[in-house]
Each structure stands twice: as structure tokens, then as C-alpha cells.
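Dear H.,

Thanks for agreeing to be a second pair of eyes. The structure we're designing against is below in C-alpha cell form, covering all 337 positions.
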């Protein structure tokens, strides 16, 4: 049974850590619900009473998305698509079609570094990253084959019929890089519809702050230190924002002194090197999730060039723990001393 935790201060230690403080006594006191969804710890806090129904609605929507986009669940929509879309067109609900179309657009926007068709590469590296017994590094020929399958042009969407199909056998979709950001965007819609003024949604590496913070001028969002416990700095955000962090410290395995993690470069077929953390600051969760994944794969030089060209706000941390900023990020960032 899920439990709703009321009147708790928000102190979360995850990939990104929000800190909100209730100061104004005329404000509704915060209510919080905690659970596990989309393979991550989930915590939702709203400043609204009564709040339990709103919290449950948001949590249930996260669970709904998980049931649709969990590619390892045999009852999910994406599992059915990945299994059958080469043999025949598969009917998909509008929510699936929407995320697929938006993801393909973002793949183009990021020059293919974010890739919703990366499933074959994910499957190839999954045993290594999970540290499964007797797992070995993938053969180069298998990697080349997976790269050839991991292309969005292998996907056909038939909009009038609400169907999707694949052009070759072995294509596999994976929305793990964006589904949490998509869920945060949908949660913002629920908050608007319910008349909630302010909230914080922590979905692992994706944090959404909604409305203006209670009793102060900004939300304080801590950025996880990529190589030790605690934070490396704090972002001060005045209003509704999503902060998405991609890091090599969440899911990884060290073999022969080398770190193999879940953030794959779709062009090389290997876990991306050079960067250890990328944080994107944006109003849209789906966008910030996709871009943080893409920039991590790009590396420092190309990533900084891309972010600057697109006028995006980001924090990039390299393997030597040097911090680089673009856009408004440096102004919003306060280092942890």
C-alpha cells in the first residue's frame, strides 16, 4: 500500500537534489508521496490542501507511462511494438505515437545523438552494465550490426491508422532517456488543471519545480557530485523549470579498470567517454532529458558548440571534474564550498 507523507520538509538525495523551504505561514503546508517507478525513486511534493488526490493522480500517471514504455515488460505497448512491428504494422495508443513522434524530432534536433531507436545497442550492453555473471564485452561485429539497426529511418509511423512498423528485422525502440521528462511535463499539466500553485517532482535524474517557491525567491536544486556522496553545487531557480542530469555514476560496471555505463554513443556503439555529468535547464522535461543524453554522447567540444549554437543553459562536468557552463547556467549556479 502506498503511503502519503504529510508535512515533511523536502530533503532528497538523488541524482539531483531539490531543497524547498516552507516559511510563509499563510501557505498550504507541503504534502509528499514517495514510491518507485520507471526504475527510479520518485518523490512528489505539492503545496496544496487537500493534496492527496492530486499526488495520487500524478503518481498513477507515472505508473501508466511505465506500463506503456517499459520495454522489458511483456504486457507493455513498447514490448509488443518491438516484438511485432517488423512482421506487421502494430496499433499504438495516441500517447505512444506522440512520444515517438516527438522523440524522432528531438533525434533530428540533436543530430542523432539522442536516439529513440537505440534499443539494439542497449540490449547488447545491458548484461555488462548490470554486471551479470559470465557477461563479456560485446564483439565489434555485433556492435556494428546494432548500430545499423539503431536508426530512426527504420521506423514508419502511419498516422491515419495509428500504427507503427519497422523496415528491417531487429529494430527496437527505447524511451528510457526521455520518459521521465515526459512524465514531469504531464505532471505539470495535472498541477495546472488542479489549480496547484507550486510543487516539486523528483524522478531520479529529472527534477521539475512548478510555480514560484514558497516563502523565498528561488528553488534550490542541488547537483550531485559525480564521484562522491553529496552535491557539487546548487542551482537557484525562480520559477517553473525542469533540470535533467545524465551521469556515468548511476548505472555502470568497472571491468579492467574501465567504467562501462548506460549512456551510449549511438555512432560508436560504446558507452560515451570524456564527460561524467551533463545537466540541462529548461522549461520542458522531454526536451531537457533528450538533450542531456545527447550532449553526454557528444563530448565537451561538440557539446559546448551545440549548446551555444542553440542558446541552451547547461552544466557539463568533465572527467577531471572541471565544470563548464552555457547560457544562464553559470549565473544560476552556486558551487558547494
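And this is the sequence the design step returned. I haven't edited it by hand at all.
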Amino acid at each position: 500500500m502506498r503511503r502519503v507523507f504529510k508535512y515533511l520538509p523536502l530533503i532528497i538525495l538523488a541524482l539531483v537534489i531539490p531543497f524547498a523551504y516552507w516559511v510563509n505561514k499563510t501557505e498550504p503546508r507541503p504534502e509528499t508521496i514517495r514510491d518507485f517507478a520507471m526504475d527510479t525513486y520518485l518523490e512528489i511534493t505539492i503545496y496544496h490542501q487537500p493534496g492527496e488526490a492530486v499526488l495520487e493522480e500524478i503518481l498513477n500517471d507515472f505508473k501508466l507511462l511505465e506500463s506503456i514504455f517499459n520495454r522489458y515488460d511483456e504486457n507493455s505497448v513498447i514490448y509488443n511494438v518491438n516484438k511485432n512491428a517488423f512482421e506487421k504494422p502494430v496499433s499504438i495508443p495516441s500517447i505512444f505515437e506522440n512520444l515517438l513522434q516527438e522523440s524522432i524530432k528531438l533525434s533530428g534536433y540533436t543530430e542523432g545523438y539522442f536516439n529513440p531507436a537505440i534499443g539494439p545497442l542497449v540490449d547488447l550492453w545491458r548484461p555488462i552494465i548490470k554486471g551479470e555473471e559470465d557477461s563479456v564485452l560485446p564483439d565489434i561485429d555485433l556492435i556494428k550490426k546494432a548500430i545499423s539497426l539503431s536508426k530512426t529511418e527504420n521506423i514508419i509511423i502511419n498516422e491515419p491508422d495509428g500504427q507503427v512498423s519497422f523496415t528491417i528485422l531487429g529494430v527496437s525502440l527505447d524511451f528510457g532517456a526521455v520518459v521521465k521528462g515526459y512524465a514531469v511535463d504531464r505532471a505539470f499539466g495535472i498541477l495546472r488543471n488542479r489549480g496547484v500553485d507550486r510543487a516539486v517532482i523528483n524522478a531520479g535524474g529529472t527534477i521539475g519545480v512548478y510555480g514560484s517557491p514558497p516563502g523565498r525567491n528561488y528553488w534550490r536544486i542541488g547537483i550531485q557530485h559525480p564521484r562522491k556522496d553529496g552535491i557539487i553545487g546548487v542551482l537557484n531557480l525562480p520559477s517553473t523549470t525542469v533540470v535533467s542530469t545524465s551521469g556515468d555514476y548511476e548505472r555502470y560496471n568497472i571491468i579492467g579498470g574501465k567504467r562501462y555505463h548506460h549512456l551510449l554513443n549511438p555512432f560508436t556503439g560504446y558507452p560515451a567517454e570524456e564527460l561524467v555529468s551533463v545537466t540541462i535547464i529548461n522549461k520542458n522535461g522531454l526536451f531537457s532529458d533528450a538533450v542531456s543524453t545527447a550532449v553526454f554522447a557528444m563530448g565537451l567540444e561538440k557539446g559546448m558548440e551545440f549548446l551555444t549554437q542553440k542558446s541552451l543553459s547547461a552544466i557539463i562536468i568533465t572527467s577531471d571534474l572541471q565544470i563548464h557552463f552555457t547560457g544562464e547556467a553559470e549565473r544560476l549556479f552556486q558551487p558547494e564550498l
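Two observations from my side: Residues 52-69 form the longest helix (18 residues). The radius of gyration is 20 Å.

Warmly,
E.
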